[in-house]
Amino acid sequence: MKKLFIIAIAAVLSAMCFIACTKENGDVLYHISVSFNDNMDILTYAMDEGFKDAGFTNVSTHYWKLNGEKNSCNNKAKSTFEARAKYIDDNRDKVGMAGLLDLKGEKVTLYYTYGSGEENVVLSTYTFQK
User: Fold this and answer.
1) Which region holds residue 62: left if phi is over 0, alpha if psi is between -120 and 50, else beta?
2) CB atoms inside a 10 Å sphere around CB 57
3) Model-wide pTM > 0.70
4) How far apart (Å, rounded) are the C-alpha atoms in residues 23 and 11?
5) DSSP code of 100?
6) What is the β-pairing status of strands 107-114 and 63-69?
7) Is residue 72 predicted with pLDDT exceeding 90?
8) Residue whose C-alpha is closest to residue 35's, from 91, 96, 106, 92
9) CA 2 to chain centre
């Protein structure tokens, strides 16, 4: 009975390790939303420039894609998103029309979709300070 119990525990631990160590690879899709009516997509286009400069693939208007290991792609997307939002916040006069917007207190949110089970999952949010 003890041996059967030990074998069962070993099997469960092996399965848990396999699941935890399995890396998910494929296409990860990203898009953002803003907390105000950006009817001319001024802020959205300004955010798009960050994704373009970071090497993301544009698949549709304001939708960007990375291919690779999901967690690695999400880390790159999150850092790209946060860096671009901070840049816009600190340098609005250099970002074209976005400089005309009053963004203080407004939020921009980054979402990702991976496979069929993870759709529009919030990855990061940035609140403008200036």
Assistant:
1) left
2) 13
3) yes
4) 20
5) G
6) unpaired
7) yes
8) 106
9) 48
What Cα–Cα distance (Å) separates residue 127 from each residue in 56, 62, 86, 104? Answer: 23, 19, 9, 8
Of the chain, the end-to-end C-alpha distance in Å amounts to 67
Name the amino acid, one letter, at 128. F
DSSP line for 19-38? HHHPPPEEEEEEEEEESS--
The tokens for 20 are 């935890």
Kindly give the pairing relationship between strand 57-60 and strand 63-69.
antiparallel
- Cα separation, 24 vs 27, in Å, equals 10
Give the span between the Cα atoms of 103 and 123, in whole angstroms: 21
Give residue 1's pLDDT.
60
Cα–Cα separations (whole angstroms), residue 106 to 29, 30, 48: 24, 20, 17
Contact call for residues 32 and 81 (beta carbons, < 8 A): yes
Query: pLDDT tier at 21 (50, 70, 90 boundaries)?
Result: low
Residue 76 DSSP class: H
Residue 64 near residue 57 (C-beta atoms within 8 A):
yes
